[in-house]
Design goal:
By secondary structure, this protein is an alpha/beta fold. It has helices at 56-68, 90-93, 120-127, 147-150, 155-167, 171-182, and strands at 7-9, 12-17, 28-30, 34-38, 48-50, 76-80, 105-108, 135-138, 143-145. Helix 1 runs antiparallel to helix 5 (155-167) and helix 1 crosses helix 6.
């Protein structure tokens, strides 16, 4: 594991952890808070919030938004427990003010590559999201959003998406492709 120098990041971070090593976070300070949501074996220190192991990172991100919707006051970085798997220079990228998608950008077209497990157009119709010819996304659903981008949808919208992660086993794959569109990142 790469060792990083101590640094302060002017945002908050939401980490969706299963059993990943999160020691990469130790030298980092997030000025608006660090939220580790744990769906696996418990961390030795009580620094994480436990969640049931459902819905992958999409469930975690949406849980955070719904739970803290009225208290969001800064940009939020959303990432997996080991973001370096999908974005080896993640720590460097989160320091860049113009970078909002962390990892290789991919395109999902209905019936094309990266669409095998997603219901992108169906979700767009049900949740009233603008249907696109292609959806730009990054593997692992790692990104940064502003509070304004979050507040562009009411909490009920996020609650409905959170509900989908509880009943659709492939919701996380669909939402991975839709998050950049939902938040206006692309």
């Amino acid at each position: 594991m790469v060792v990083y120098q101590a640094m302060s990041i002017p945002h908050s971070i939401v980490v969706a952890r299963f059993n990943e090593d999160v020691s990469w976070l130790e030298p980092l300070t997030f000025e608006s808070g660090m939220f580790i949501y744990d769906k696996g074996e418990k961390l030795p220190e009580p620094c994480a919030f436990s969640l049931p192991n459902i819905g992958r990172e999409a469930h975690t991100y949406l849980h955070h938004i719904v739970k803290l919707y009225r208290h969001i006051n800064s940009d939020i970085i959303f990432c997996q427990g080991n973001p370096l798997d999908h974005c080896p220079d993640f720590v460097e990228q989160i320091q860049e003010p113009d970078v909002t998608l962390y990892g290789t950008q991919l395109d999902c077209t209905v019936g094309g590559a990266y669409d095998a497990r997603s219901l992108v157009h169906e979700y767009c119709k049900v949740f009233q999201i603008s249907v696109q010819p292609k959806y730009r996304f990054v593997a692992g659903a790692q990104f940064r959003v502003t509070k304004e981008q979050i507040y562009s949808h009411p909490v009920e919208f996020y609650s409905a998406l959170l509900g989908a992660t509880r009943v659709d086993p492939d919701a996380a794959y669909t939402l991975e492709r839709l998050f950049p569109t939902i938040f206006g990142l692309v």
